[in-house]
Amino acid sequence: MTTSSDPNPTEICFGLDRATDERSLAAFLRLFSSSRLCDQLIPRLSDEEITDLVDRLTGLMRRHLREDEYHRLFLGQEHHH
């Protein structure tokens, strides 16, 4: 699932159906990872919160991405050796 437009927070809604949940999650994550929010939120996180978040996200990638997908999609490496 890809989207070329900026996420619209008014269209985020969970629990209706899988397709809406997927679109909403994609929009939510794009908004969550904005530089403005990260610059304000990250300094306020505890060391434990940072570790927990990184562990959760890397765990999801480990479970759902092959190694070549991880390198290409997350790290932006077209050729992994």
Summarize the structure.
The protein is mainly α. Helix content is 59%, strand content 0%.
Description:
By secondary structure, this protein is an all-alpha fold. It has two domains: about 1-45, no CATH class; about 45-80, no CATH class. The protein is about 60% helix and about 0% strand. The chain contains four helices and no strands. The chain has helices at about 20-30, 35-40, 45-65, 65-75. It starts with 17 loop residues before the first helix and ends in a 7-residue tail after the last helix.
Based on the model shown, name its key terms:
81 residues; mainly alpha; 4 helices; 59% helix; 0% strand; globular
List the helices and strands and how they pair.
Elements: H1 18-32, H2 35-41, H3 47-64, H4 67-74
